[in-house]
């Protein structure tokens, strides 16, 4: 079992990292993804989003299975009966069965299932590692190759009530940090960004952010960061004069 776990972890580590953060109006998904067709983030149901790192063909099979589960449950019972917790339990059973089976290799995937609530207190984020365990996350979560370092960076800087631009700026900063501590620039065209926006009037809250809207948010976040830095510098200089 230890060998199977190590095999799965190495496979996941070869993939690019992604982050999921809460902000004032919902949940944002951010990842480095040069492909425009193979998505890391997807809509599962009205208020539920899906994110995955690892082997694309394996997590795509899981995504399709999740959509089928959600559609069937919503049709058989009620749309409100489709929850992130229920979906996470289904994924946990599937991943756990595959991981413990000697007949096939373990899946090289790590999943995040998120549901946006009517208020930030009702948001739900679940992380599912390769072995099928479920981790209830709050505020922010990172999965993929450099997840541990990125999670530490986010834990120190993420706060409640951030705007979308601020959350996006923090996510890109976290993803830009290499294992040796240096930073690199990730252009907008290499980013995949999506949100679960609780303020959307329609029932479906999932939306992709691309093109001009993404560029404007990145510029807005950079401008806000620069203004904050200038304010701190003025405060420091003022205290020195005193």
From TrEMBL:
Gene3D superfamilies (alphabetical): Glutamine Phosphoribosylpyrophosphate, subunit 1, domain 1 (3.60.20.10)
Superkingdom assignment: Bacteria
Signal peptide (from-to): none
Cellular component aspect of the GO annotation: proteasome complex
One MF term in the entry's GO annotations: hydrolase activity
Biased composition (Acidic residues): 231-242
Main location: cytoplasm
Pathway membership, UniProt: Protein degradation; proteasomal Pup-dependent pathway
Region of interest called Disordered, as start-end residue ranges on this chain: 220-242
Keywords from the named record: Cytoplasm, Hydrolase, Proteasome
Cross-referenced CDD domains: proteasome_protease_HslV (cd01906)
Pfam families membership: Proteasome
Activity regulation comment: The formation of the proteasomal ATPase ARC-20S proteasome complex, likely via the docking of the C-termini of ARC into the intersubunit pockets in the alpha-rings, may trigger opening of the gate for substrate entry. Interconversion between the open-gate and close-gate conformations leads to a dynamic regulation of the 20S proteasome proteolysis activity.
InterPro entries: Ntn_hydrolases_N (IPR029055), Proteasome_alpha (IPR050115), Proteasome_alpha-type (IPR023332), Proteasome_asu_bac (IPR022296), Proteasome_sua/b (IPR001353)
Compartments it resides in: Cytoplasm
Low complexity: compositionally biased ranges: 220-230
Family (UniProt): Belongs to the peptidase T1A family.
HAMAP family (UniProt xref): Proteasome_A_B
Function per UniProt: Component of the proteasome core, a large protease complex with broad specificity involved in protein degradation.
Oligomeric form and interacting partners: The 20S proteasome core is composed of 14 alpha and 14 beta subunits that assemble into four stacked heptameric rings, resulting in a barrel-shaped structure. The two inner rings, each composed of seven catalytic beta subunits, are sandwiched by two outer rings, each composed of seven alpha subunits. The catalytic chamber with the active sites is on the inside of the barrel. Has a gated structure, the ends of the cylinder being occluded by the N-termini of the alpha-subunits. Is capped by the proteasome-associated ATPase, ARC.
PANTHER family for the chain: PROTEASOME SUBUNIT ALPHA/BETA
Protein name: Proteasome subunit alpha
Species lineage: Bacteria, Bacillati, Actinomycetota, Actinomycetes, Kitasatosporales
């Amino acid at each position: 079992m230890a060998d199977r776990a190590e095999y799965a972890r190495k496979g996941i580590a070869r993939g690019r990292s992604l982050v999921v953060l809460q902000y004032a109006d919902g949940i944002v998904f951010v990842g480095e993804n040069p492909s425009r067709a193979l998505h890391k983030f997807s809509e599962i149901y009205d208020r539920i989003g899906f994110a995955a790192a690892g082997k694309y063909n394996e997590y795509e099979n899981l995504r399709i299975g999740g959509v089928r589960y959600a559609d069937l449950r919503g049709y058989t019972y009620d749309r409100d009966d489709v929850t992130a917790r229920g979906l996470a339990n289904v994924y946990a059973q599937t991943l756990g069965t595959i991981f413990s089976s000697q007949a096939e290799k373990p899946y090289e995937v790590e999943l995040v299932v998120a549901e946006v609530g009517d208020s930030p207190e009702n948001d739900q984020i679940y992380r599912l590692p390769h072995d099928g365990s479920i981790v209830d996350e709050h505020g922010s979560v990172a999965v993929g190759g450099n997840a541990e370092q990125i999670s530490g960076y986010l834990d120190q800087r993420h706060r409640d009530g951030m705007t979308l631009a601020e959350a996006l700026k923090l996510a890109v900063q976290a993803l830009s940090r290499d294992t040796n501590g240096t930073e690199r620039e990730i252009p907008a065209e290499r980013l995949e960004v999506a949100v679960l926006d609780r303020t959307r009037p329609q029932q479906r809250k999932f939306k992709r952010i691309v093109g001009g809207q993404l560029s404007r948010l990145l510029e807005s976040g950079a401008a806000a960061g620069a203004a904050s830095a200038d304010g701190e510098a003025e405060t420091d200089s003022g205290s020195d004069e005193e």
